[in-house]
Amino acid sequence: MIISMIVLQGLLNLVSVTATALGAHSYGSKISKRGLYIREQTTSSDFAPKGPVIDLGYARYEGYYDSSFDIFTFRGQVDSSDRKLRYASKPNRWQLPKRPNRGPGSEKVLKATANPPRCPQSPFSPIIEDYSFERDALGDEDCLFLNLFTPANKTQLPVLFWIHGGGYGQDWAANYDFSNMAKTVGNGFVTVIIQYRLGAFGFASSAEIGHFGIPNAGVHDMRFALEWVRDYIHLFGGDPTRVTIAGESAGGGGVMLMTMANNGSEGTSLFQRAIVSSPYLPTQWRYDDMQPSQAYYDLAARAGCLGPGTTQNRSVFGCLQSVDSAVLQNASAFVSMGARWGQWAFLPVTDDRLIIQRPTKQLLQARVNGVAILSGNNANEGTLFVPTDVRTEDDFLARTRLDYPLLSEENMTAIMSFYKIEEHAPSGPLYSTDGVNPPFATSLSGVASGWLQAAYNLYAEATFVCPAMFLADAFSSGGDSSTNVTKRAWRYQYSPPPAFHDDDLDVLMKPVLDKNDNDGAKESVGFRIAFQSMWGRFIINGDPTLDENTVASAKQMGDDVSAAKKSTWLPWGLRSSSLNHSTHSMLNLNMTRPEGGVADFQTVDGFTWEGGRGDRCKLWADLGPWAPA
């Protein structure tokens, strides 16, 4: 199959067609539709008034004024030239990012008016048997750019620093725009949306890469972009001492890795707060373990770098550094498509440089950068990533062993003690559980029951939900004794059915009054305002709880969001003198019914939620050495 630009609008749609045929809902097409919506709502820069000219030393950029939001916008592509709103120079493969150089023509004012080129994309399994990218569908290795949105005529504003998701292999900055959310909270923050190296270009790893280059190149890009914000964001009206890093899925995983960077020793030097939505924690191997090394050599073989004259490690690495970009992009995509079902082949690793420990180990030690976190997940995270042929206990065991090959029989016994389906468990009708009363999501949801639902729930908890809890735990351990800074965490779950992975982003980015929502929005206006306000208030004030005016306005529309008030939604892990133990207050964001209902927010015990989720997450923390994460 030849993949052209028509198909790539894209590549995500191509992957989602295959996934849907095998029973998963369409993650890729949702990303593409969201990106198309965002690009359609943007004021055409061809006719927009000029924005300010910003001199970064290495280049001068002119944005444009978007009257729809009263903001100045700076986008990564500059006209049709090779000069772009970059935070780093063109990267060398598997080397650290570097600062842009001041070159000829740097005095010229460049119009930052169009979206940057995509980084090379590497889709996820299931496999498409035989395909390649045409030249017009290839990504651009020179892709370390950003889009920036800043309210007009304001200064010293807090900053939202967004890391996009996509399994560390897909997506780009053009699919994200939080201008609607900023408008909901009075245009109170600047937004920076970055790109970073993906697939093999960002996450190939082996002993050779560790010796001759750097593993986790994409993670280094994220951190380098934070350094750019520290040094330059004041020129765009932002305050470098009030930065909130945020991301969903792999973007949330990237946020997690930034909180862990350099063993959590960086404090608030690059950011102060973090937001994670469904933080992605796949198996995280050491950089020279068998799994990442096998993907590296599969990449080399596919790129023609394993053969006569390339048997020495240096020759393999040198060949991969110099091979034609189209060859390497196709090799990266091919290897990634051969990963486990619903997975990507090239992922972050423990590299002994920037990422020193496994997340479960370091987060349990509460060694994290930053002072506060807003940590969320969706009710049905696992449906995209598990095939629908899990029907029996044997299927469930086989799928678990395939996903976590190091598990021993003792480990499997422990897992089954928490995830085994009881004989009397209901098989229907399908409906979303309330999390408090049985049946629980361990055996039933609105999309599955029995062993298939058990597989969905296991994957969701191990990969997205428990990492959100681990992060909240790390930020609720009291604080940093060396600085006397108290850390805080808030937990929530996004639950309007079906609440699949990624469903929450549309609500955060679209207008609260969207008359042209062709996706049939389930959430009421009050729900949307409350959810956007939670994120916006956390970015601006470091506290996501809602004020009385927001709650009262929602009530006038019939929406009950009062549980999100400060007096009700307590920080996660807050010590209660009256109860003599730590509370696990979690805000459940739901609707009274899937269609045409009103918001119904509740605070619940996030530890006992869904039949003891906290205990199951403790299990996954204990299994960290064998299900490496």
TrEMBL record:
Signal peptide span: 1-19
This enzyme's EC code(s): 3.1.1.-
Start and end residues of each Carboxylesterase type B domain: 87-546
Superkingdom of origin organism: Eukaryota
SUPFAM superfamilies associated with the record: alpha/beta-Hydrolases
Family: Belongs to the type-B carboxylesterase/lipase family.
Name by which UniProt lists this protein: Carboxylic ester hydrolase
Provenance organism: Colletotrichum navitas
Lineage summary: Eukaryota, Fungi, Dikarya, Ascomycota, Pezizomycotina
